[in-house]
């Protein structure tokens, strides 16, 4: 099959609106639903069709925003997604890709240039939220710049809306109603270069990271709460992922994006949003697999490892068991 080529054109009017959108999905009901949601968001659907149209080898002009539902991508589809990611990265187009948990690692690995939103078995509400995040990120549409605290508040709010949507979906499924459409306190900001506290004019050497067995025990204790309380009551994906990656770093183990999503204790789509925020904040790093370009891993950055080591030293191992 000839390699698909894509030529993006930024179709906007004099006011910078509306965005042109391309939609590809094999599920006809889902395709119609996505078109309706795009229209409700005030965007223009340039074209829509099944994945075969996206996989066709002819040159095509796509919109500034491309939505693709690829729950079970084969090798040919993965190659086209990689090409799509490259073109989007170069042109500034936005991608929203939906898939399933089994294909997540492969989809994540082939999308390294465009920072797409990846949704895992999303509800309709989660797709709408993804569209809203695109609109909030477009300079011409933004009312004001979002501060770090604003972005994290929006992320928390997004999670809450997702939780509500999931609960409503469960209620609808149980009762037969409807159709199943298938400024936090934690600031992700590293001290700036040259930063010194009054008592830290000479920075101490980094202490060693704690024993991985201790960190794994803390993780197990945190997960045990779910036996007695609602999972969402204690949801703290950023911290749970930091703990998991800290243990993995000590064990010299690589962590896949799917494994890290599971460790987060929240739905995969929510976990992916947090992973993106943590990468942007310089706490996580994406590491390509040199032996297999279809895989990518997540690791702590050196700054995050330094912070975790100092945290564990600060609170002392006696207090760690209560973490």
UniProtKB/TrEMBL annotation:
The keyword DNA-binding applies. One of its GO terms (molecular function) is DNA binding. Residues 256-304 form the HTH marR-type domain. The lineage of its organism: Bacteria, Pseudomonadati, Pseudomonadota, Alphaproteobacteria, Sphingomonadales. The keyword DNA-binding applies. Keywords: DNA-binding. Pfam families: HTH_27. This is Winged helix DNA-binding protein.
């Amino acid at each position: 099959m000839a390699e698909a080529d894509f030529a993006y054109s930024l179709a906007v009017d004099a006011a910078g609106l509306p965005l042109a959108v391309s939609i590809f999905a094999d599920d006809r009901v889902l395709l119609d639903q996505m078109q309706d949601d795009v229209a409700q968001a005030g965007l223009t659907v340039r074209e829509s069709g099944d994945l075969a149209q996206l996989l066709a080898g002819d040159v095509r002009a796509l919109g500034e925003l491309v939505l693709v539902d690829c729950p079970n991508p084969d090798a040919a589809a993965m190659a086209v997604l990689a090409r799509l990611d490259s073109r989007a990265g170069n042109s500034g187009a936005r991608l929203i890709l939906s898939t399933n948990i089994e294909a997540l690692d492969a989809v994540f690995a082939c999308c390294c240039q465009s920072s797409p939103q990846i949704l895992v078995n999303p509800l309709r509400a989660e797709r709408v939220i993804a569209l809203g995040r695109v609109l909030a990120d477009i300079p011409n549409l933004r009312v004001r710049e979002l501060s770090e605290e604003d972005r994290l508040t929006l992320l928390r709010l997004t999670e809450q809306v997702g939780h509500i949507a999931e609960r409503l979906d469960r209620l609808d499924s149980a009762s037969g109603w409807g159709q199943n459409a298938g400024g936090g306190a934690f600031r992700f900001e590293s001290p700036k270069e040259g930063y010194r506290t009054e008592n830290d004019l000479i920075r101490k050497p980094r202490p060693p990271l704690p024993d991985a067995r201790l960190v794994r025990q803390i993780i197990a204790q945190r997960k045990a709460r779910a036996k007695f309380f609602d999972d969402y009551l204690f949801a703290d994906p950023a911290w749970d992922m930091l703990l998991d990656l800290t243990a993995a770093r000590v064990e010299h183990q690589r962590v896949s994006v799917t494994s890290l999503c599971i460790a987060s204790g929240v739905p995969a789509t929510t976990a992916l949003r947090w992973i993106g925020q943590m990468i942007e904040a310089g706490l996580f790093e994406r590491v390509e697999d040199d032996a297999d370009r279809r895989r990518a891993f997540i690791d702590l950055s050196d700054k995050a490892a330094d912070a975790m080591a100092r945290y564990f030293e600060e609170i002392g191992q006696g207090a760690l068991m209560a973490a």
